[in-house]
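not sure who needs this but someone in the group chat was asking about Bifunctional polynucleotide phosphatase/kinase from Merluccius polli so here u go. i didnt clean anything up, its just raw.
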Amino acid sequence: MAERAIVGSSAAGTPAASASPSSLSSSACPKSHWQQIGNLLLYTAAGVRGSEKIAGFDIDGCIITTKSGKVFPTAPDYWKILFSEIQPRLASLLKKGHKDVFFTNQMGIAKVHRPVNWAPGQKKDFSCSDRLFALNLGLQFHTPEEYFLRWRSAPYSLPAFDPRKLDSRGRLYDPPSASFTNNQTDVIVAVGFPGSGKSTFFHSHIVPKGYVYINRDTLGSWQSCVAACERALTEGRSVAVDNTNPDPALRKRCGQSNRYPMSLFSFLSITGAGQAQ
């Protein structure tokens, strides 16, 4: 079996994994190029070789930081390597047969960084989302200071809710004869925090029943969502609206002013908004 171990992390701890002691025999990438795989953009530099040993790192707050210490850069070259120890450590990984992989999300989504003058034993990170990500993948975890500067492990606390302890065989309905859907044209609207499980639930239990799936992330605006609802309902097709939907007025529009039965599926995150996101 592959031995996996985190060898890097972001400011909050995005992991990096070492997958196997043996590396793939692969020719070097002849030319630097970009690939798009779904919503993922992948850049491979010329000379990179495939390997079963992957060392993955978040970029911002782990490998680089802004020159001024501000949260966001103001120009493409407005950055510097976070620690002088980083480059030799990465080079060492390459010599040992690892493929260094860097992750970033530059879509304008704000990130939670550690407080000023943070240090293990003094202050904790605001978020442990990256640590939870590593935990979900079964990987070890290191902060940048732990891995590159060899600091002792930083204090942290995990949320009280642990999904690994849930019984995957538990029933979805109570009573068992109940159903999420019915036989007439209707509208099901999800309400809940981002990341609380709405999309997964809808794709697993609602869409397979023949419901038209409507999502603002895909359509771009609430007006487009309402228009899509109207088209589907006019055709006699039931609709599942998967957004956060906090606004009662918008929820009402999706049901064409109560002309069709509407059910609200409220996803109450027992993890809290922070962990759900």
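also The chain has two domains: 5-148, 187-276. if thats useful
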